[in-house]
Design a protein that fits this description.
Helix content: 25-40%
Largest sheet: 5 strands, antiparallel
Strand order of the largest sheet: 2-1-5-4-3
Number of helices: 6
Number of strands: 7
Low-confidence stretches: none
Structural class: alpha+beta
Distance between the termini: 77 Å
Strand content: 25-35%
Oligomer: single chain
Mean pLDDT: 84
Order of helices and strands: HEEHHHEEEHEEH
Length: 161
């Protein structure tokens, strides 16, 4: 297998992932994305590559500045980070995600960039909201020991019990 075959294979692997994958350089410029990143953010690959990572307006991000004045805590700590946050799509929608990020470290120990995996959390957020609504119904003042209702018939049953 030659080098180009390996590049093609890895491109296929990365584009098959359901999570968004974004690679940035040490100046915070996006240098690579996968297909899932395009689908999550609404931006095309061409719009993302060459843009500052702050284009996604992550509400729990430590990246600041641009170019040589760019700073990000991830590059200072070189620790794997996992954060719940929200990004803003191209259309302006707020998208809840789980972001896993890690610094890409060279053999000499220096940071060469970072990789971020973006997991869509919409289904989990919707599920949690539904559970919260159901819990509030169960705990509402119109219930008694799990019996929910305030109709005359329900009140009569509660009185008998």
């Amino acid at each position: 297998m030659d080098q180009q075959d390996m590049v093609d294979f890895w491109t296929t692997v990365v584009d098959t992932m359901r999570d968004g994958l974004i690679v940035v350089d040490t100046d915070g410029m996006i240098v690579a994305v996968n297909r899932a990143s395009e689908q999550l953010t609404g931006y095309t690959r061409e719009e993302l590559i060459g843009s500052q990572c702050t284009i996604l307006n992550c509400d729990n991000c430590t990246a600041r500045g641009s170019g040589k004045s760019f700073t990000c805590d991830l590059f200072e700590t070189k620790q794997i980070e996992q954060r719940k946050c929200s990004i803003t799509t191209k259309e302006g929608a707020v998208l809840p995600i789980m972001k896993n990020a890690s610094v890409l470290v060279g053999k000499d120990g220096s940071a060469g960039g970072a990789v971020e995996l973006l997991t869509d959390m919409r289904a989990l957020v919707t599920r949690d909201q539904k559970i919260a609504r159901l819990n509030s119904l169960i705990r509402s003042r119109d219930q008694w020991h799990g019996i929910i209702g305030k109709s005359l018939e329900i009140q009569e049953i509660v009185d008998v019990v």
